[in-house]
Amino acid sequence: MLKRIYIVAAFIAAQLCFLPVANASFTETVRNGFSTLNDNIAQTWDEPQHYDLYIPAITWHARFAYDKEKTDRYNERPWGAGFGVSRWDEKGNWHGIYLMAFKDSWNKWEPIGGYGWEKTWRPLTDDNFRLGLGYTVGVTARDNYNYVPIPVLLPMASIGYGPATFQMTYIPGTYNNGNVYFAWMRFQF
């Protein structure tokens, strides 16, 4: 599996090298996207508005994608904790940099660190209540891959009130691999 990840990453890198020849406007869009991402990460690191405590809450393996004997053995209580910094931008969107460690499906420690962004909506007259939808990009490492760093790009959603936010992601996969819902609490200080 890890070998496939490296092959796919090498293929994507090679394709990106030839993008200027293939499509200059697409290349410019990608370049601008990376520049914006880099600027947002730097600003969040340099000008944090909050410190965040992360508490993993649940790991759920999608039952439609697993054999029952596998899910019966998996850990779905991801004990752990994390710390981060975050800020709200002028549009009201959330930016965060985090480092978290938790017990994975095999009850082994899994660290993850990265950057998260969420477009945030406040649908009620109470500005404390919010919904978010975005992504996280970072690096994780797992015991079953000998703790070799693995890049991640995952969707993220949240519901929050005041300093408390319930954030979640879904790790896609194949049968008996991936297809995991992972959620945590984030408390801002």
Automatic annotation (TrEMBL):
SUPFAM superfamilies named in the record: OMPA-like (SSF56925)
Coarse class of the protein's main subcellular location: membrane
Function: Transfers a fatty acid residue from the sn-1 position of a phospholipid to the N-linked hydroxyfatty acid chain on the proximal unit of lipid A or its precursors.
Reaction(s) the record says it catalyses: a lipid A + a 1,2-diacyl-sn-glycero-3-phosphocholine = a hepta-acyl lipid A + a 2-acyl-sn-glycero-3-phosphocholine; a lipid IIA + a 1,2-diacyl-sn-glycero-3-phosphocholine = a lipid IIB + a 2-acyl-sn-glycero-3-phosphocholine; a lipid IVA + a 1,2-diacyl-sn-glycero-3-phosphocholine = a lipid IVB + a 2-acyl-sn-glycero-3-phosphocholine
Pfam families, alphabetized: PagP
Underlying gene: pagP
EC number: 2.3.1.251
Annotated positions for site Role in lipopolysaccharide recognition: K70
GO molecular function terms noted in the UniProt entry: acyltransferase activity
Protein family per UniProt: Belongs to the lipid A palmitoyltransferase family.
Positions bearing the site annotation: Role in the phospholipid gating: Y175
Localization: Cell outer membrane
Keywords, in A-Z order: Acyltransferase, Cell outer membrane, Membrane, Signal, Transferase
Organism: Pseudocitrobacter cyperus
Record-given protein name: Lipid A acyltransferase PagP
Signal peptide (from-to): 1-24
